[in-house]
Amino acid sequence: MAERARYVVVRDGAWQQFYFRRGGRRLAVDAAEGPEEFGRFIAGLEPVGPRGWMDDISCEAAAVVDHDRRVLLLFTWHLETYEERRTLFAVLARTWPGWEVRWAYDGLEDVVAHVGLERESVRSELGTRPGGPLFAASPDEPDFTIAVTMTYREGPQAHAVFGENVSDVLAHGPDVVRHLLPVTRVSRLLRIPYGGVHIDVPARRVAAWTRGNFHGGAAAARRLPGWPGWEWTCWYDAHERQQAASAGALAFAAPDPSAGVRAWIEQLDEPRPADGTESEARAALRAVLDALDPTSMECAHDRT
Question: Would the CA dihedral through 28, 15, 55, 271 be positive or negative?
Fold first, then answer.
């Protein structure tokens, strides 16, 4: 199965796109090796013409290395837990000193917008399709769990539904409150889910966060299609804001930062040669992970 990734290098006002069919799963580790090593890696990939973009469902990971503005913009579908994502930004803060590191919350749309192209040019039907049935989430699959909290005059409620993207819930519009069943009710989640939606019914406000990315340009939108007259707020990856807004209806278990470091070390061990040797860049990345203090790690990216 392909794990398609796109890479864009911006230099001296011009940009060049590159493609790697198997790059999605390894993009985070490749980028974490720092701008010099990542740049050499990208230079060896297949170049793509300026019109050769995929859509947002075909591209599983992407990165923009903007030397002019010293910005690294990236996303990947292959960080399976909140802890792995948190570790990524702790590492990038050390291996990309002097660079601004941003997460592409609208996925490939943010990538093309960075180089001046229209977001809609890579938007698939997933960004505009109607919402489907909202089944109960499995406690063992946080990567396919969306937390939905609601504030009513009678009090708050919390639900956990199965979904591949937060947009699966947002696509229902305000009618989503009628599609939530008693079987999806929860009060606590033992792992940080993929994302969440909070709906304040009396105030007509909706907000959402994700540790992945949105489909349909929700992060950049001022108003959500399908929610006319409602105030929309993107919470980026701030799951804590949903917990606070739920007024006690939902609690997230505290993340285990050391679990993210362990997962990263396992990723580095997988392709390690039998003789135990590593490139200088990979050995340096391992040293960064060894030096991390999991108890003090904070995300190093934007939360507006």
Answer: negative
Q: Rounded CA gap, 260 and 98, in Å? A: 24
Tell me: pLDDT of 40 over 90. Answer: yes
In this structure, what are the phi and psi dihedrals at residue 48, rounded to the nearest 5 degrees? -130, 145
Q: Which helix (H) or strand (E) holds 266?
A: helix 257-269
CB neighbours (10 Å) of residue 291? 8
Query: pLDDT band at residue 225, thresholds of 50, 70 and 90?
Result: confident
| Cβ-based burial of 296 (10 A; exposed 0-12, middle 13-18, buried ≥19) | exposed
Q: Which residue has the higher pLDDT, 125 or 148?
A: 148
Cβ contact 238:303 at 8 Å: yes
- The string of pLDDT tens digits covering residues 155-164 is 999 999 999 8
CB 8 within 8 A of CB 108: no
